[in-house]
């Protein structure tokens, strides 16, 4: 981050960019002023976009009203959820094919309370199967009614003022009443007049302002609009040609759906703060649009031929997302052409939440393509939203807000950072809790303990060390495991699977490096002849592991790297990885690892039995030298002193099979322990069930690397082989 370059949305440079874009789009006819129905927030007294309106399901009511047919004793039944809007009624619509109402088309009815005369019209908007089949039309207060009104050239009567109180277009006793007060009063009058047939409970959806929480009203007013459909035309092809990629990919469908159904963008707001619309008016009402006052004056003087005139700038401001849409290039100095703009536009990645894909991402793409002739970014990473441990959105009123600074104070910044990354399964919400952060703090403690082990053994880093020259099997193994981990993590980062990267890192550090390698090398460190190679291998792997972990744990890794003299300053962030490949395809340690697991299981099932400390094996064609060469490991973990070739009598030995080789420990307590065999058989059956369940899991087979799947299959085969042996012995 270049902290010397700070931009604020109301800076002079950004204001110039906003005005230039506005004028350019106005001159093309893409921006225009129109009297239209908009979403109106009566609390904020401003227009809001569709994207700033949340739809909330509530338990409401539906009222069935009688509209008397003129020159008749009959009436038509009309259902409504907003009876107060009858003052704005201009027609009753019925479906042209509705046999029940066909004879009433072109007749007139009397609106209850207001006693106004309005026509019955035929329009397919009226659904014969919904409500009574007849719909009252109020073009000024319903988006669908507005379209019906346009089709039939109906009058538009607005009955509300800016705060949703009834205005002078209603009967005198209702003027000035709040919309809901008016509703209550009107229902009482309808009851008294015999015009209310019935009322029913009704589950309905109401529009709620995202910022104010007020119920939004459709409201007819003069507003500025941007023809987003025109601007979005090139985007379809860009998405198809993968000029922009979404991660996860599924969000591209949501994006495309919005583009396909895009509506005119209401860009004006009736609030105090924002970029003021660059439009000026004469006393006559004639409008002039220009980037600044000086340019406007030139235009007006040219038009009027005089300098004697008064100008009034439009009082509306632009929707905040209008200026935000220009950010990728306006923040780099556009419309001026400079080296920063040429170098950094377009960029590679935009990281954002799914909740502003349409507010911001789509609009940046539209404006970038229009004014820079290129999309502003190649990849869009949609991160999850952080919620509480129960998946509920954080709210001060609910008291479930988790303050990140408190978590940092308790567990450290790296622990919180690592937790958030590890929970970032693509596109899903993060359920955050203290416990999860605490667990990852323990993981960081594990890394600190590795650093202490390094210091305790007086290791030092050798920058001339070539890991391809190591001789010890355990060193070859940990080197190979590191290289595989490095490749995987880089692949995951490049493909935006950050949570997979943290899982792989955790597995390598905790399991491979700490639990296995550290234990394996302890017996070797007792002999000086192995020290140099272990020192070099350990230091090389640890230093590179810190680099690999740095994007996720920047503070701890930089600190350890400095403390252990891996780096002279905090520079892991810029450190390049050594370009090495695995030095052997298969390692002997994987076979040793299997044997260790079998021995652990064998000893676990023979807790009360004394087993000889020597390991016996039956001579096979398979090579056993790898085990003899690494007897120090078995000695360190199990106290095994010798590996002896022998015929293995099933009655005298506790037996297991690994890598196709039959092994055993001499049972010094019993020649034939039937009970122990049963225990072993039960254990092996459970193992088989475990592996079979794992290998029948489609998700595991699909996501796990092939070598892991193959490893699990081999384990299953070996357990089955052991089971056959013990069942035969029984």
What does this protein look like?
The radius of gyration is 38 Å and the shape is elongated. The two termini are 70 Å apart. The strands form seven sheets. Strands 3, 4, 5, 6, 7, 8 and 9 form a seven-stranded mixed β-sheet that branches. With 730 residues, the protein is α+β, with helices and mostly antiparallel strands. The model has no long low-confidence stretch (mean pLDDT 88). It contains 23 helices and 25 strands. 42% of the residues lie in helices and 18% in strands.
Helix content: 40-55%
Rounded mean pLDDT score: 88
First and last CA, distance: 70 Å
- The value of Rg in angstroms is 38 Å
Biggest sheet: strands, sense, closure?
7 strands, mixed
Output the number of helix runs: 23
Number of strands: 25
Draw up the topology in text.
Elements (H helix, E strand, L loop, with lengths): L11 H16 L3 E11 L4 E3 L4 E17 L5 E6 L10 E4 L13 E3 L6 E6 L11 E4 L5 H9 L27 H14 L3 E14 L7 E10 L1 H13 L4 E3 L3 H10 L4 E2 L1 E2 L9 E3 L5 E3 L3 H12 L7 E2 L3 E2 L1 H5 L2 H4 L8 H6 L2 E7 L3 H16 L4 E7 L2 E2 L16 H8 L1 H10 L7 E2 L2 H23 L16 H22 L3 H27 L6 H19 L4 H10 L24 H18 L9 E3 L7 H5 L1 H8 L4 E3 L7 E6 L2 E6 L7 H22 L2 H6 L2 H24 L1
Parallel strand pairs: 5-7, 11-19, 18-19, 20-21, 22-23
Antiparallel strand pairs: 1-2, 1-10, 3-4, 3-6, 3-9, 5-8, 6-7, 10-12, 13-17, 14-15, 14-16, 22-25, 24-25
Helix pairs in contact: 4-10, 11-12, 12-13, 13-15, 14-15, 14-16, 15-16, 15-20, 16-17, 21-23
